[in-house]
Design goal:
The protein is an alpha+beta fold and about 600 residues long. Helix content is about 30%, strand content about 30%. It folds into six domains: about 100 residues, Rossmann fold (3-Layer(aba) Sandwich), CATH 3.40.50.20; about 70 residues, 2-Layer Sandwich (Dna Ligase, domain 1), CATH 3.30.1490.20; about 130 residues, ATP-grasp fold, B domain (D-amino Acid Aminotransferase, Chain A, domain 1, 2-Layer Sandwich), CATH 3.30.470; about 130 residues, ATP-grasp fold, B domain (D-amino Acid Aminotransferase, Chain A, domain 1); about 30 residues, no CATH class; about 80 residues, RNA polymerase II/Efflux pump adaptor protein, barrel-sandwich hybrid domain (OB fold (Dihydrolipoamide Acetyltransferase, E2P), Beta Barrel), CATH 2.40.50. The strands form eleven sheets. It has a five-stranded parallel sheet. Strands 10-9-14-15 form a four-stranded antiparallel sheet, with helices on both faces. A four-stranded antiparallel sheet has the order 13-16-23-21.
C-alpha cells in the first residue's frame, strides 16, 4: 500500500528509525533530516535519503521549521511526520507544513494550539465535564500570587509551565519559603523549552499514579481509546518505566477513564494519535492533567498488548482513511513493560553521560523488542536527549513480563557510556515494583542507587594491562572446566593516568586551590548564576544552573566560604571539569 510515495520524518535517533520501519511496510520512501552533529547517526544511515538542516544545536537545526519544510520540498516528499519531541507539538510548524502544500501527519494545528496551553486546556476540559485537578485555569503572574494560592488551596502545590510538557517546567513547592525559586525556575524552563514563560498552579497530589490513555481519532468522527499506560515511576517528572495495563486499574475503571479520554479528544476536534494524561489518586479519583498532541515515547507498550501499529494508523488517518478498527474491536492481550535506557550516571544523580558507545549488543528472544537509534561506535552527543534505546517486553501477565525484562536487561550490553541498565535491574527486582506499588521516593533513594551501582555493567571496554596505578576490573577465569567472573586489580595505562592527573589539575583552578574549586559536572549551557564574587555561601547553596541534554542541573557549594574567581555567565557553554568559581574559607588571602 502506498498512500504517500515519500514521507520526511522531522526528528532523529530512535524516533526516526522507528517511524522509518512503518513507512517501509507501507511502501513509502523514508526521508531523514540531520544536524552536523548527527552526520554519522544511525537514522541517517537507515533513511532512503537524508538532508543536512544546520549545526548541532537543536535551535539551529531540528527546531528550524523552514529548513525542514525546505528539505521535504527538495526531496519531493508529500508529507511530514514530526515524531515526538522537537516540533511535534508546535502548531506554527504544523501550519507551515500545510501552507507548503504538504500533508501533516498529526492533529489539526488548532487542537495542538489549544492543548498546548495547559491553562486553556484545563478550561476546555472543565467545560466538557472532564474532571481536572484543583488549581488555576489562568496563568499566575508572580510568586506572591502563588503564596496566596497556597494559603487558599494548601500545600504542596505544583507550579507548571503553561506551554509545558515532557516533565519540563514543573516544580513542587511544599511551603511558602520555596515559592520564589520554584516560580523563577518554572518560568525559566518555560521560556527555554517552549518560548513561553507563563506558569499556572495545581494542587500537588501526594503519591498518585500517573495514568495516561491512548486515543486514536480519524477525520470521519471516529474516536476510540486503546487502554491505559501506567507511567508512575519517574525522575524529575521524566518517565523511566511504563507499563500496560496499570496494576491499579480494573475493567470498570478502564472503561471510565477511557470514556473520559474519548470525551476530551472530542472536545477539541482531535484527529490522529494522542494521549490524555491524568493522575489517579489513592482513593480512585481520576483527574485530567494534560493532552499530548502527538504519539508518545511509550506508545510501544500499547502496541504490544493491542497488536496495533500506531504510526501506521497515524499515516493512514493523515491520508484520509478511517480508523482500521472500532472500540468494540479493541482487544488487550498480556502485559507489556518499557524501560528507557538513557545515557545517565545514576551514582552522580542521574547526570547525563554523553560519549561514544564502544560496545553494543541488544537482547532478543520471545517477547523482546528494542527501539534504538544507535550501534557500536555511535556517539551520544551532549546536545540532545540522552536516550540510547527503549527496551520493551511482553509477557502473559505482569510477573511474566517483569521476569522477561530482567532477563533482557541482563543480556543488554552497552559500553563506553554510563547507562540505566543497572538502575532498571535494581528497580524491577525491588519488592515495591514486584508488588505493583507506586514506589514513591524509591527512584533516587540511597538504597536503589547503591544497588544500581552494583548491577551496572562496566561502562568501558577492557584494555590491555600496562604499568601504572592499580584499578579494579572484571575478567573471566576458568577453573576445572567452569567459568567464573572475578574482580581483580590491574594496572592503569600510563596515558590514562596522565589524563586523570590533567583533569585533576584542571579542576584545581588557576590558583591551584584544588579544595576550593567548584567545577561543572557536565558539558552544557549555563542557564543562571546565583552568586557573585565576594558572596558568602553555605554548603549546599546553589551557585549556578547548568542545562545538559534537556535537563537542568544545580551546581552547589561543597563547603561554607566566600565566592571568588567566578568564571561563567548565563548563556555560556561549559565543559566537564571546567572551573566555575572557587569557594574559599574567607580571610585575608581570599580575593574579594
Amino acid at each position: 500500500m502506498g498512500v504517500f510515495s515519500k514521507v520526511l520524518v522531522a526528528n532523529r535517533g530512535e524516533i526516526a528509525v522507528r517511524i522509518f520501519r512503518t513507512l517501509r511496510e507501507l511502501g513509502i520512501g523514508a526521508v531523514a533530516v540531520y544536524s552536523e552533529a548527527d552526520r554519522d547517526a544511525l537514522h541517517v544511515q537507515k533513511a532512503d535519503e537524508a538532508y543536512l538542516i544546520g549545526p548541532g544545536p537543536a535551535a539551529e537545526s531540528y527546531l528550524v521549521s523552514a529548513r525542514i519544510v525546505e528539505a521535504a520540498t527538495l526531496a519531493g516528499a508529500e508529507a511530514i511526520h514530526p515524531g515526538y519531541g522537537f516540533l511535534a507539538e508546535n502548531a506554527r510548524f504544523a501550519r507551515s507544513v500545510l501552507e507548503a502544500g504538504l500533508v501533516w501527519i498529526g492533529p489539526p494545528p488548532e487542537a495542538i494550539e489549544l492543548m498546548g496551553s495547559k491553562t486553556e486546556a484545563r478550561t476546555r476540559m472543565q467545560a466538557a465535564g472532564v474532571p481536572i485537578i484543583p488549581g488555576t485555569t489562568d496563568p499566575v503572574g508572580s510568586a506572591e500570587e502563588v503564596v496566596s494560592l497556597g494559603n487558599e488551596l494548601g500545600y504542596p502545590l505544583l507550579i507548571k509551565a503553561a506551554a509545558g510538557g515532557g516533565g519540563k517546567g514543573m516544580k513542587v513547592v511544599r511551603g511558602p519559603e520555596e515559592v520564589a525559586s520554584a516560580f523563577e525556575s518554572a518560568e525559566r524552563e518555560g521560556q527555554s523549552y517552549f518560548a513561553n514563560p507563563a506558569v499556572y498552579v495545581e494542587r500537588y497530589l501526594e503519591d498518585p499514579r500517573h495514568v495516561e490513555v491512548q486515543v486514536l481519532a480519524d477525520g470521519q468522527g471516529n474516536v476510540i481509546h486503546l487502554g491505559e499506560r501506567d507511567c508512575t515511576i519517574q525522575r524529575r517528572h521524566q518517565k523511566l518505566v511504563e507499563e500496560t495495563p496499570s496494576p491499579a486499574v480494573d475493567g470498570l475503571l478502564r472503561e471510565r477513564i477511557g470514556a473520559i479520554a474519548v470525551d476530551a479528544a472530542r472536545a477539541v476536534g482531535y484527529r490522529s494519535a494522542g494521549t490524555i494524561e491524568g493522575l489517579l489518586s489513592p482513593e480512585g479519583d481520576y483527574y485530567f492533567m494534560e493532552m499530548n498532541t502527538r504519539i508518545q515515547v511509550e506508545h510501544t507498550v500499547t502496541e504490544e498488548v493491542t497488536g496495533l501499529d500506531l504510526v501506521r494508523e497515524q499515516v493512514l488517518v493523515a491520508a484520509g482513511e478511517p480508523l482500521s478498527l472500532s472500540q468494540a474491536d479493541v482487544r488487550f492481550q498480556g502485559h507489556a513493560i518499557e524501560c528507557r535506557i538513557n545515557a545517565e550516571d545514576v551514582a552522580a544523580g542521574f547526570l547525563p553521560s554523553p560519549g561514544v558507545i564502544s560496545a553494543y549488543r541488544e537482547p532478543g528472544g520471545p517477547g523482546v523488542r528494542v527501539d534504538s537509534g544507535v550501534a557500536c561506535g555511535s556517539e551520544i552527543p551532549p546536545l540532545y536527549d540522552p536516550m540510547i534505546a527503549k527496551l520493551i517486553v511482553r509477557g502473559s501477565d505482569r510477573e511474566h513480563a517483569r521476569q522477561r525484562m530482567l532477563r533482557a536487561l541482563h543480556e543488554f550490553e552497552i559500553g563506553g557510556v554510563k547507562s540505566l541498565l543497572g538502575f532498571h535491574r535494581a528497580l524491577l527486582s525491588h519488592p515495591c515494583f514486584v508488588a505493583g506499588e507506586t514506589c514513591n521516593g524509591l527512584v533516587e533513594s540511597d538504597e536503589l542507587v547503591r544497588r544500581a551501582a552494583e548491577l551496572e555493567p562496566p561502562a568501558a571496554p577492557r584494555e590491555p594491562a600496562v604499568a601504572g596505578t592499580a584499578r579494579p576490573r572484571e575478567t573471566t577465569v576458568e577453573v576445572d572446566g567452569r567459568r567464573f567472573e572475578v574482580r581483580v586489580l590491574v594496572p592503569e595505562p600510563p596515558h590514562a593516568g596522565l589524563a586523570r592527573r590533567r583533569r585533576e589539575r584542571a579542576r584545581s583552578g588557576p590558583s591551584g586551590a584544588g579544595l576550593d574549586a567548584v567545577v561543572s559536572p557536565m558539558q552544557g549551557t549555563v542557564l543562571a548564576v546565583r552568586v557573585g564574587n565576594g558572596d558568602a555561601v553555605a554548603s549546599g547553596d546553589v551557585l549556578c544552573i547548568v542545562e545538559a541534554m534537556k535537563m537542568e542541573n544545580e551546581v552547589r557549594a561543597h563547603r561554607d566560604g566566600v565566592v571568588s574567581g567566578l568564571a561563567v555567565s548565563p548563556g555560556e557553554a561549559v565543559t566537564t571539569g571546567q572551573v566555575i568559581c572557587e569557594v574559599g574559607s574567607g580571610g585575608d588571602d581570599t580575593p574579594g
